Amino acid sequence: MNKIAIIGATGATGLELVKLALNEGLDPKDLCLIASEKSVGKSLIIQSQSFEIKSLSSVFESSFDVIFLAAGSKVSAELKDKLSKLDCFVIDLSSKFRQNQDVPLIIPEINHEALNFKKNRFVSSPNCVTTLYLMVLAPLFKKNKAKKVILSTYQAASGAGFFAMEELKKESEAFLNDASYEHKAFQDPYAFNLFAHNAPFKDPFDNEEEIKIRQESQKILNDPDFKITATCVRVPTLRAHAISAYVEFSESIDSETIYSLLDEASGIKLCEDFSKNKFATPQNASCKNEVYYGRIRKDPTSLNCFWFWIVGDQLLKGAALNAWQIYQLKRSYETLHAHSRTTSS
Fold first, then answer.
1. Does 195 score more than 90 pLDDT?
2. Which of 47, 279, 282, 328 lies deepest, with the highest CB count within 10 Å?
3. Active-site position among 128, 232, 271, 305
């Protein structure tokens, strides 16, 4: 088992990475939790295991096989060059280097072949919405390309971190008790409210989140002409995102083929019952590894167009789990490579 460092271990995504490592049986002694200076020296108890939070210098004082960067774009930008000099494999969960040509952007179930372990030592994990919706739609695109995709997203507090999650709880309590509350996580009140995603606008009409989804989809699908547009909305749920996806396929396709293709795909789960008006919700998907899909229906007004409803845990497959699966790809490669050497000998 490898020695692992998690930079940003006390954040929402970092804590999920720790849980994933422990669930897989990693010896806690082989797990180094790193956070900001204000947390250094403090104890963190996860699944009955006690960890002392280490400083960033620990990364350069010890030897690690894998380092997870889960502390945001600013920290990733500051550390990339330094970490690249170490003999380790780095998985970055921030958006900082996702569009760099020399940095693979990986969803293991979809484009693992884009990762060359002999060459790539620094890898990015995609935006949560990009990962969640492609888990369902990418298997279809391999059979029938999309002419256009339109997304409407309903994004949970977890995408903005622990602070936003806690504020949603406290503000909701204050709202129900008719008490005043000074909201700080977002410019708009959050409890019992929704608003355009809080990402800054990078052009006159699309915010950064919407641009990320477009650019990352094109890179992951290896199709710079892939046409996708999104409207991203922050909603008062805690940790699972929901997505309404409208797809215009290039060629004719029927519902039976869609269900058949998705039934063969891994990491996703059908959840729909039209007779009972029952489909996946954020509560269904929270703390679950699978991405849920359903309410698949043909658009009666347009040719080759279908609607999809997709819900997934933003902290798991949308972030930590996807990064962990990239690490598992590395382990599988090393095992296979070691076996090949032994066999050759």
1. yes
2. 282
3. 128
pLDDT band (50, 70, 90) for residue 334 = confident
Using a 10 angstrom Cβ sphere, with 0-12 exposed, 13-18 middle and 19 or more buried, the burial of residue 74 is exposed
Rounded percentage of the chain residues whose pLDDT exceeds 70: 97
Q: Domain coordinates of the chain in residue numbers?
A: 4-126+320-344, 129-318
- Report how far residue 20's alpha carbon sits from residue 329's, in angstroms, rounded to the nearest whole number: 15
Active site residue 197: no
Task: Look up residue 345 and give its two tokens.
Answer: 């000998």
Q: Which two tokens stand for residue 123?
A: 């890898």
CB 33 within 8 A of CB 179: no
Q: Which fold has domain 129-318?
A: Dihydrodipicolinate Reductase; domain 2 (3.30.360)
pLDDT at 338: 66
Q: Vertex 66, ends 118 and 69: CA angle to 5°?
A: 110
The separation between the first and the last C-alpha atoms of the chain, rounded to the nearest angstrom, is 24
User: Which pLDDT band, with edges at 50, 70 and 90, does 99 fall under?
Assistant: very high
**Residue 79, amino acid:** L
- pLDDT over 60 at 1, yes or no: no
Q: Is the pLDDT of residue 343 over 70?
A: no
Cα separation, 33 vs 111, whole angstroms? 29
Q: Helix, strand or coil for residue 234?
A: strand
- pTM, entire model: 0.94
**Sequence letter at residue 107:** I
Q: How far is CA 60 from the centre of its chain?
A: 27
Confidence at residue 147, expressed as pLDDT on a 0 to 100 scale: 97
Q: Is domain 4-126+320-344 in CATH 1.10.3720.10, yes or no? A: no
Contacts from 160-167 at CB under 8 Å and sequence distance 24+?
Answer: 160/185, 160/186, 160/198, 160/234, 161/11, 161/12, 162/11, 162/12, 164/190, 165/12, 165/238, 165/239
Token pair in block for residue 176: 């129900």
Residue 239, phi then psi, degrees to nearest 5 = -145, 5
Residue 241 bears catalytic tag: yes
